[in-house]
Each structure stands twice: as C-alpha cells, then as structure tokens.
Model the fold of this input.
Amino acid sequence: MASGTESAPTAGEYIVHHLAHLTSTGHKQEAVIDWSVFNLDTIFWSLAMGGLAIFLLWRAAAKATSGVPGRFQAAVEILVEMVESQAKSIVHGDRTFIAPVALTVFVWVLFMNAMDFFPVDLFPRIGELFGIHYQRVVPTADLNGTLGMSIGVLLLCIYYNIKIKGAGGWIHELFTAPFGNHPLLYPVNFAMQMIEFTAKTVSHGMRLFGNMYAGELVFMLIALMGSTATVAGFFGHVFAGTLWAIFHILIVVLQAFIFMMLTLVYIGQAHEAH
Amino acid sequence: MNLNATLFAQLTVFFILGWFTMKFVWPPIMTALDDRAQKIADGLAAADKAKTDLAHAEKKASDELRKARESAAEFRTGAEKQATATLEEARVEAGKIIAAAREAAEGEAAAASQRAKEALREHVAQLAVAGAEKILRKEINAQVHADLLSQLKSEL
Done:
C-alpha cells in the first residue's frame, strides 16, 4: 500500500483502495468512459480463469472414453449434459456453437465469480510484493468484464437473427414486431426493439456485475472488522466471513447459471419469429 | 464502475473461449456420451435378444422332447402290434401244424387199423381154412374148394 509506511489507512481509504483497478495508464480512470484505458487486473484474471476453465474441460475431453468414465470425466459429462439439455429445450435450431458457448460461459463465469472466495487481501498483498499496488481479482465484479460478455451475447443474437431470418426478414421484424405491420406503428416497433435489445444486454451484464460487486464489497467490510485487531473484530470477522462465504457459494453458482441461461434464452429468442 | 477498453478484450476472449470449446471440448465429450449411449442400447438389445433366444431354445428343446416321446410311444405301439401279429401268426401256424399232424396220425392210424383188419381177416380165413381143412381133410379136396374159400375170404 502506498500509505503503508506513513500510517494505517482509514476504513474508507481501505475500501477505495481495494476497489481501484490496475489500469494500463497507471492511475485511476477519471472519465466514466475512456476507451484508451485497460484494466490489466480484470484482463489477467479473466484470461487466467478462462484458461483454467477450458484447460480443465479440454483435459476431460481429450481423455474422454465411451467406456466406464472416471470421476473427473463423469463430472464434466454431467455439466455438459446439463448445458446440452438446457440448450436443447431453449434453442430450437443449430446448436453447434451455442451449446459450447453456454458451457464455456457457465464454467468461465463460475471460476471468475469463485475468485471472490480468496481472502480479499491475498492477491493484492502478493501483488504489492512485486510492486503492483492496485489489484481487483474478481473479473465479474468489473462492469467491463460482464458487459463484454453480454455484448458478445448481443452480437450472437444479431448474427443468429440474420442467419435464421435473413437480413431482410430481420429488418422487417424490427419494424413490424411487437405491435403489428402498419406504417404508423413502424417507429414505435423499432423503438421497442431497440429498447428490448439494450435492456437485455445491459441487464444481462449488470445483473452479474451487481451481484459480484456487492459480494466483494461485503467481503471487504467483513475484512475491515478483522483489521480492527480486537477480539470482537476477530470473532466477528470469522463468524460473518464464514457465513457470507457459505452464502456466497450459492450466489457464485447461481449467478453463473443465470448468466448461462440468459445467454441461451436471448440466443433462443433470436431463433424465433415474433 | 468505469467503462473502458477492457470490455473489448473481454468480448474477444469470450469468442475465443467459445470457439475453443466448440472445437476441442464439446465434440469429444458428446461423441463419448453418444457412443456410450449406443453401447448401452446395444447391450440391452443383446440381452433382450439372448432372452428371446433362450425362450426359443427352451421351446424347441421341449418340442423335440415331446416329439421323441411321441415317436417312442408310437414305436412301442407298433412293436407291440407286430409282436401280437407275429404271435397270432405263429399260433395259427402251430394250430395248422398240429391239425395236419393229427390228421396224418389219424390217417395212419386208420390205415394201420385197416391193415390190421386185413391181416386179421387173412389170418381168420387161414385159420378157418386150416380148421376146415382139418375137419374136412378127409372128405374135401383143397384144390376143388379153393374158389369157395376165396369167396368166403372176401366176405369176411
């Protein structure tokens, strides 16, 4: 910590410090939107978790046998069959890309969310040993991470809309659905469609971000209790930390599952004419 | 809560990971699952087939057994009938032989009795002649009365 040598940070400083990203510019991003900045910590942990996720899946796939499966293979198969059955019931059409994407998204988001289970100070402290003063380890608690994925889903929706209905068919649908085919209704329909796509994408990304950000914040507040170095603070930290971590297991898995399901639902909607 | 270019990095990673899974993860696992399902289906079908085959074989075996039993019974009946027929035939034959023997014996006996009678008659005639000769030696010439004597002999 920068202020470590001078004096212990206040609670506010501690939280703010922990919520600061390691940016490519080296200082905190000032503007709300600045396309010249990268959050290096988010990119690193997102890539690491994505790499871990597909490495594990790939290991299971490479050694997959149609004979008696091992436990690891059986676990991955359960996961794959779960995603496959969900995809089959939601998306009516060619699923060669959609189902694998849903599987990837589920495992990837699950792993990124699970970074929350590490002590909030563990990786930032390790980073400080190497001169990295700011680090946030939960990529899904960064709006860029979640919106990046939900925009990916939006692009897939647009792609499948055009693929299934044809460019003309989709544009026709944009102006005639949901209210009907009448010149007076065209602007209303189009506005509704734009709102729908925007709302889907933003809510898709925001839902995951909000949950994980809030979860991370609660972990930080609990860590603050422990940092008081009192008996009450210690036991408060242990008790609340345990409780919240256990509850957070549910949130981590549930949010990953919801993100996957919404991915399938939105892409499935692209397959169906209004 | 700031938006920046991280978003595009995440977007790119999203598609790369999805592509990787589609290419290298999904197909082998689905193949393994489908193959296993096929194997299990084949195994169940084979078990079913074995069961019906067993039932068929059992039915066939019992059919064969029944047939063998029937043919054995038939055989025995035939043999019995034939034995009875042979016995009957033998009995008839024996009866015939006995009858023929009896007839032959009777014929012979009759012939013998006839012969004995003849001999007796001859003898009696001779005795009578001898007696008569003895009686009539003095008064009757045997040559003269031969005709008379033979006539007498034939009347005996």
